[in-house]
Design a protein that fits this description.
Elements: E1 9-11, E2 14-17, E3 23-34, E4 54-61, E5 66-68, E6 76-82, E7 89-97, E8 101-109, E9 121-124, H1 131-136, H2 140-153, E10 157-158, E11 166-168, E12 171-173, H3 178-182, E13 190-191, E14 196-197, E15 202-203, H4 221-240, E16 247-249, H5 266-282, E17 286-290, E18 313-316, H6 318-323, H7 325-332, E19 338-342, H8 354-366, E20 371-373, E21 410-411, E22 415-416, H9 418-439, H10 442-452, H11 466-480, E23 499-503, H12 505-508, E24 514-517, E25 519-525, E26 533-539, E27 545-553, E28 560-567, E29 573-581, E30 586-588, E31 594-596, E32 601-607, E33 623-630, E34 633-637, E35 643-647, E36 651-661
Parallel strand pairs: 9-10, 9-20, 13-16, 16-17, 17-18, 18-19, 19-20
Antiparallel strand pairs: 1-5, 2-7, 3-4, 3-6, 7-8, 11-12, 14-15, 21-22, 23-36, 24-27, 25-26, 26-36, 27-33, 28-32, 28-36, 29-30, 29-31, 29-33, 34-35
Length: 662
């Protein structure tokens, strides 16, 4: 790190002396991203940065003079690769800046071989028809290959291969994919090629006239036979290369929302995905689908299919996994079933702490998840309309549509980001955990990871050096043949030191202060110890609300609202907890709603935080009204731009013991 106080400085060169027979080294200079806009308020975490004016992220190879400006430090990163034949021991690297002296760094190499097998697969798709042409210039295919190579160098799985299968007179020829498939990490999950081309809007499948299909036609026997033949040939090809086990079909067609969040089209979207899934499964392939949970969104009488008919891998936001870990564990225990999580929201946002991004991999490893997948690796945008922008040319144009840097882990060049390096670090952590699992047991390795990432990821704020300490402890245990001990640096559990009871239904279960709109309420025996009575609420219509007038309640200085809740629904339930102050200002806590798992029984802790995009003042000292609302339907725009309202059915909750806590 180089700083200039009042006058900018310029150094002719920076050099590093190191044993080149054992190491490869690349120097980078970091690029700052100014945070000029309020990011997407739906992405909430205790670790979210709110006061930083700029955050470093882009990495440019360092060659030539080094300039040090006065407004920000200049930081040089040394990316060090240890050759496999390097003997264990301590090594010295000497950094020299001409005219400024030297600095020595000691690097310790452990006698631990990570091996080639991936432990957690991180998949990052690229849009070959949109972002690649924009950043790829005159040769987008060459740029696409270069970007895929950059991802693979960091242990990442490219979601989109450059080569395409070809239909010949002898049948399908998948050999153009050989080189790219062979380059993937051993044992990695990856997206198998599809018979649909997004950029042209055409299928690789041809009708009886020899023309490419423009749309899927499941009532056309010829179309179905063509699709079946494609997937059978694909499965045979992948099996011959030893890649069938890791292959996942992520259906994509002209409707847009198919494998990618079929809930946009409601029950109809699930039904269409199920048609693709049946064809892929018949060929021996597995299907992954984003936004599909292990349980349906609602009852079958409303048209919702059982997820078993829809997908094999449920790809969900981490918050959904954290809301119902037992449900996902039961799903993953079934033959052929797995779950994966989104990278976006916690793993690729510039304005989240590095510790949380790296911790995402520890978090999912502890819960038995072996795949993380995100959006486009190059989605640098300048507006809410998703206009692409080159961050090297005008970094001030970046707009946080999905959070700063959401879906943009690769800088144009292609060049890496600091977050890409963090993902690589996390993937190496996971491989160490797998080595530890082989030395002990998988259950012990998961338990060890879980000690460092307890509870929901949204409410964690790990220390900056937590994962470095854990990484070193794993290396020491593997070297010495003992058990890893994280007790000296594991995060302390959250404890309540002070609380104030707001609502006790032993006294207020039938109180007149409550008012209900399309909600059936009744006092019931409390399912929680030391409580006699609780409140049972059944939310029926879209406009439901259960509200409590609090008089004037002073919440100033309290850190969280805590209460007991039991869901009597076999589906996920979204509960909105709203507060209104004496001036009529309304606040949702948290601002994206609370997600409850199927048949959940839990103590909820909601941090009392002002959302980043909130402009109105809110008076915590004069809370007048508390409201509860539950989503019994939702509205979404399908792949053809048509809006629909899709019913989910009623939801029933039992609530008790609302209290303020510190």
């Amino acid at each position: 790190m180089l700083r200039a106080n009042q006058i900018a400085l310029k150094f002719d060169a920076l050099s590093v002396a190191y044993p080149e027979q054992y190491f490869s080294l690349q120097l980078y200079r970091e690029q700052y991203v100014p945070l000029l806009h309020v990011p997407d308020p739906e992405i909430v975490s205790l670790a979210r940065l709110t006061d930083a004016g700029a955050i470093p992220d882009g990495l440019r190879p360092l060659d030539g003079p080094v300039e040090v400006r006065t407004e920000q430090p200049t930081v040089i990163w040394a990316d060090l690769y240890v050759q496999p034949e390097t003997p264990p021991g301590d090594y010295t690297l000497t950094l020299t800046i001409k005219g400024m002296g030297e600095r020595r760094v000691t690097v310790r190499v452990y006698p631990v071989d990570l091996g080639p097998q991936t432990a957690v697969s991180v998949i990052i798709p690229e849009d070959a028809g949109w972002t690649i042409p924009f950043f790829g210039g005159d040769d987008p295919a060459a740029f696409h290959r270069a970007m895929n190579s950059l991802l693979i160098e960091h242990g990442i799985v490219p979601g989109t291969l450059v080569a395409r299968p070809v239909m010949t007179a002898e049948g399908w020829d998948f050999s153009p994919l050989d080189a790219e498939l062979d380059a993937l990490p051993a044992g990695a999950s990856f997206y198998a090629p599809l018979p649909y081309d997004d950029s042209s809007g055409q299928y690789l499948l041809r009708d009886e006239r020899g023309l490419p299909y423009q749309q899927a036609m499941f009532d056309d026997p010829h179309f179905v036979r063509q699709a079946e033949a494609f997937f059978r040939a694909l499965a045979e090809y992948l099996g011959g290369k030893g890649r069938l086990e890791g292959a996942l079909v992520y259906p994509d067609d002209e409707t847009r929302w198919v494998g990618d969040e079929p809930w946009h089209a409601g029950p109809r979207g699930y039904a269409r995905l199920a048609q693709w899934t049946a064809i892929a499964r018949a060929a021996g392939l597995r299907v992954t689908a984003s936004g599909v949970d292990p349980v349906p969104p609602g009852p079958a009488e409303l048209g919702w299919l059982d997820p078993d008919l829809v997908t094999d891998d449920t790809h969900v936001h981490v918050d959904v996994l954290d809301a119902a870990p037992e449900v996902f564990a039961a799903w993953m225990s079934r033959p052929g079933k797995s779950s994966s999580v989104y990278l976006n929201e916690y793993g690729d946002l510039i304005d989240l702490t590095a510790a949380l991004q790296r911790g995402l991999i520890w978090h999912v490893y502890a819960r038995g998840v072996r795949m993380i997948a995100g959006y486009s690796a190059l989605e640098w945008v300048s507006s809410e309309d998703y206009d692409l922008v080159d961050p090297w040319q005008d970094v001030t144009a970046l707009y946080p549509v999905s959070g700063y840097g959401g879906g943009a882990l690769v800088w144009p060049g292609p060049l890496p980001s600091i977050r890409l390096k963090l993902l690589r670090e996390g993937l190496e952590d996971a491989r160490l955990l797998d080595l530890y699992a082989r030395a002990t047991s998988l259950e012990e390795a998961r338990d060890l990871a879980g000690q460092l990432t307890p509870g929901a990821l949204a409410y964690q704020n790990p220390s900056a050096d937590l994962w470095d300490q854990a990484h070193e402890a794993l290396l020491a245990a593997l070297t010495e043949g003992g058990r890893a001990d994280f007790s000296s640096f594991r995060p302390l559990p959250m404890t309540v030191t002070q609380e104030h009871l707001l609502i006790d239904f032993d006294r207020l279960g039938q109180a007149e202060e409550w008012e209900f709109t399309d909600v059936t309420a009744e006092a019931v025996e409390s399912p929680w110890a030391e409580s006699d009575q609780a409140l049972r609420l059944t939310f029926e219509s879209d406009a439901n609300e259960a509200g409590l007038w609090l008089g004037t309640s002073d919440w100033d200085g309290w850190q969280a609202l805590q209460f007991n809740v039991k869901s009597l629904s076999p589906y996920f339930t979204t509960l909105d907890v709203g507060l209104t102050d004496a001036d009529g200002h309304y606040l949702l806590v948290p601002d994206k709603g609370l997600l409850l798992g199927p048949n959940a029984d839990m103590t909820v802790t909601l941090p009392l935080l002002i959302p980043l995009d909130e402009t109105e003042p809110f008076d915590w000292s004069q809370i007048k009204y508390l409201s509860l609302q539950v989503a019994t339907s939702y509205e979404a725009r399908d792949g053809f731009g048509q809006r629909g309202v899709y019913p989910l059915g009623s939801r029933t909750l039992i609530l008790d013991n609302f209290r303020l806590v510190k």
